Amino acid sequence: MRKSERRLALVRMLTENPFATDEKLAETFGVSVATIRLDRQALNIPEVRERIRRVAADRQDEVRALDAHDVVGRIVRLELNRLGISELPITSLHVFARNGIVRGHVLFAQVNSLAMAVMDEDSAVTAKTELRFYRPVRLGETLRARVDVMARHAGILKCRAHTEVDGETVLDGWIWVARASARTWEGQD
What we know:
The protein is of the alpha+beta class and 189 residues long. The chain folds into two domains: 3-58, Arc Repressor Mutant, subunit A, CATH 1.10.10.10; 68-179, Hotdog Thioesterase (Thiol Ester Dehydrase, Chain A), CATH 3.10.129. The protein is built from five helices and six strands. It has a six-stranded antiparallel β-sheet with strand order 1-2-4-5-6-3, with helices on one face.
């Protein structure tokens, strides 16, 4: 196997298994450990300990309060009871046919489902919202939503919701999500 082919295969293999050691890689490719280290250096691939640390840092929590496919947009980051980030590329399914502007309920659905996904409960519902829309979003743009948990009281999370397109705010406000079994939702500010 030529060096260029081996390096491509090395990248592919480490993408699939970032925990592979230099010794295992050397055995797989039939080369010395020193050759693997030189290949990794040339490709700017860190040693196994650093790869493991990065994988651990990139680990996300799993959605509990609803099915992951019910979250509107693709979850980029999720830390239960702390924060959630999602992205949603706007297609023709999300806009009014006449003017290409995103339907308001799509903007709401993204932050609302993300707020419920952040809750570390088996089931959650929306208790209250205070949202402001700043500008229309158009076909072809990508929404990036972020929900941060600001307070928790009696099974209710108060979340800051913010959505932007290319760094420009399009939606901002608050969403309160409650554990589905929470008895009272009123008076939670």
